[in-house]
Amino acid sequence: MQVNDELVDQLSTLARLTFKPEEKEGIKTDLQKMISFIEKLNELDTTGVEPLLFMSDEVNVLREDEVKGSITREEGLLNAPLRDDKFFKVPKVIRK
Amino acid sequence: MDVNGKYEAVIGLEVHAQLQTQSKLFSGDSASFGAEPNTHISPITLAHPGTLPKTNKKAVEYAIMMGLACNCEIERYNYFARKNYFYPDLPKGYQVSQHTTPICKGGYVSIKTKDAERNVQLNRIHLEEDAGKSIHDADDNYTCIDLNRAGVPLIEIVTEPDMHSAEEAFQYVTEIRKLVRWIGVCDGNMEEGSLRCDANVSIRLKGETTLGTKVEVKNLNSIRNVKKAIEYEIDRMIGMVEKGETIIQQTRSFDADNDTTFAIRDKEEANDYRYFPEPDLTPFLLTEEFIAGIQARLPALPQVLFAKYKLLGLSEYDAHQMCDDKATAAYFEQAIAYSKNYKAIVNWMTGPLRQVVNEQNISFNELSITPKTLADLVTIVEEGKVNFSVASLKVLPVLLSNPVKGPLQVAEELNLIQVSGSADIENWVNEVLAKMPDKVVEYKKGKKGLIGLFVGEIKKVSKGKADPKKATQLLEEKLR
């Protein structure tokens, strides 16, 4: 897989990250290295092998429908960078 | 606008239904609606590092219930996936959903429109978590976030692009709402957002088999608005095509103030949600026994009862009325265990009792009169002990405020038992005829309509106890 500017732009859009143009070159090289490293796995013939989705064999870890484990609003808002006494606050999403 | 029937609309609906569980899908926070903002939160809901979600068993059961009610195939091997996107009311930066293995596959929902009865094909029903709420108008400079709703269990019911008119979509959502309420998995309240609908609409020339460019309409917070928005959208698209314009793939929102839609975003680039299996949640396997257990607990569905009631001899209309909601059907079911006079029970339930239910704004299961009492009431009318109007106007009000008493007891206490013995009735008839000699003359001259007046008068003097049929019979004999 070829890492080009377009791919880096697309990924940064999806990740909501912005890079300076001079950073981009470095990112491109790093990403290319990582992808090439992982691509090595493609050499393995996995025909007929079911994908392994979970590392643990555990299944059906379900809980009963009970209300418990909540924290107070004050505790919940404690680490918020921006807040008032009721809400988390973020930059305006929709301007009215 | 239907330019001489040239076009065909193709509609698919996505309905999100909040499951009526006590707690959220992956955490023990309360899932109830209407609490103070940010009071149903936990480190899991807030997406703090090091937390581990755990799936709510009840939510899984509810999803299966809906699947069974919609004739779906139930997936035995289930796992969740992360749907990655950024939005402030999505604390984790991904929504946990079922991407690859929806818990219910295929299936259909039967709908009735004016013209026909048909099955709307479903694509899938899957489990997922709800997002929080963004409040845009509480603060001038910021958007406020309430995470009470974040993590509340949802099922998303997705149809195939299988509907062709706004009317069909209207009937479909009506049916879905009835069904979720019937089986008790969701309260179906569209205004509070516990049932939400998005519509995918496209048009094509009749006879075409490929789908046209679709537009997704959101913010449809009532069934009427689903219909209005689709109607508007079909017209708008036909208008565009007729003018030679190209329809672009968009997400639009319905504006309930003027029944139109407006674009909220163009989908130029396909969304890239980068789904992958959620490593924090173990897969869950559904056994035959587990599914069979849920099937056994599923209440009899409206279409089944409808068929049963028609076999009992009810008209299509009456049968439909009795399956209107689960409480009505349950009441009817119990009443018919005590009386075989089905039609009379329907008449009470659609007449006097319906009025009480409406006035008190309750459902049939909250009615103070039990189905057994109703059946007894039907029986004393059937036996001619009281007539229907006396039973509904005099006996019913007493029963409503004093449900312990039986109808017969009340009728006796109020001295309302109809007398059909000829001696008593003859006395009343003679009394009335003696009181109105001039009317008797008029009647004899041919004014036969006066019989009603005489009967009415007899009802009065007998305080409703004279059997009107017998009285009429006697009157006719005497006036011959």
Automatic annotation (TrEMBL), chain A:
Top-level taxonomic group: Bacteria
Gene3D superfamilies: Glu-tRNAGln amidotransferase C subunit, N-terminal domain
EC number(s) stated in the UniProt entry for this protein: 6.3.5.-
Reactions the enzyme catalyzes: L-aspartyl-tRNA(Asn) + L-glutamine + ATP + H2O = L-asparaginyl-tRNA(Asn) + L-glutamate + ADP + phosphate + 2 H(+); L-glutamyl-tRNA(Gln) + L-glutamine + ATP + H2O = L-glutaminyl-tRNA(Gln) + L-glutamate + ADP + phosphate + H(+)
Keywords: ATP-binding, Ligase, Nucleotide-binding, Protein biosynthesis, Transferase
Subunit and partners: Heterotrimer of A, B and C subunits.
Protein name as annotated: Aspartyl/glutamyl-tRNA(Asn/Gln) amidotransferase subunit C
Lineage of source species: Bacteria, Pseudomonadati, Bacteroidota, Chitinophagia, Chitinophagales
The encoding gene: gatC
UniProtKB/TrEMBL annotation, chain B:
EC primary class: ligase
Record GO biological process: glutaminyl-tRNAGln biosynthesis via transamidation; translation
EC number of this enzyme: 6.3.5.-
Reactions catalysed according to its record: L-aspartyl-tRNA(Asn) + L-glutamine + ATP + H2O = L-asparaginyl-tRNA(Asn) + L-glutamate + ADP + phosphate + 2 H(+); L-glutamyl-tRNA(Gln) + L-glutamine + ATP + H2O = L-glutaminyl-tRNA(Gln) + L-glutamate + ADP + phosphate + H(+)
Superkingdom, taxonomy of origin: Bacteria
PANTHER family: GLUTAMYL-TRNA GLN AMIDOTRANSFERASE SUBUNIT B MITOCHONDRIAL AND PROKARYOTIC PET112-RELATED (PTHR11659), GLUTAMYL-TRNA(GLN) AMIDOTRANSFERASE SUBUNIT B, MITOCHONDRIAL (PTHR11659:SF0)
Family stated for the protein in its record: Belongs to the GatB/GatE family. GatB subfamily.
HAMAP family registered for this protein in UniProt: GatB
Complexes and interactors: Heterotrimer of A, B and C subunits.
Protein name: Aspartyl/glutamyl-tRNA(Asn/Gln) amidotransferase subunit B
Organism this protein belongs to: Segetibacter aerophilus
Gene for this chain: gatB
